[in-house]
Amino acid sequence: MLSCSLVMPRNHSEKTLDLSGLLCPLPVLKARKHLQTMPSGTVLRVIATDPMSAIDMPHFCNEQGHTLLDEEKDGSALIFRIRRK
Questions:
Q1: What are the residue ranges spanned by the domains of the chain?
Q2: Helix 53-64 vs helix 26-36: angle between axes, to the nearest 10 degrees?
Q3: Which residue, of 70, 79, 80, 83, is most buried by count of CB atoms within 10 Å of its CB?
């Protein structure tokens, strides 16, 4: 069974959500769920390994009004930093 984890990095104003191993549409759905619980303006760092996340996550941010601060690739992982609207 795959699971996701929420990790607090050194910068406590930014949460990390590791969604490695989850396939579309789960990374976007889980990111949405966590963003809904966060205050406006906070940042969620999402780690995903599904290649479709490169398309889905920017589209999700655009549609929902969140700001995609940056997107990077680290090996097979895609890392997104999203500021909640």
A1: 5-83
A2: 30
A3: 80
Selected catalytic residue, list 14, 21, 23, 24: 24
Tell me the average pLDDT of the chain: 90
Task: Write the pLDDT tens digit of every residue in 58-68.
Answer: 999 999 999 99
pLDDT digits (tens, 9 = 90+) for 19-59: 999 999 999 999 999 999 999 999 999 999 999 999 999 99
Helix (H, G, I), strand (E, B) or coil at 57: helix
Architecture of domain 5-83: 2-Layer Sandwich (3.30)
Answer yes or no: 61 catalytic. no
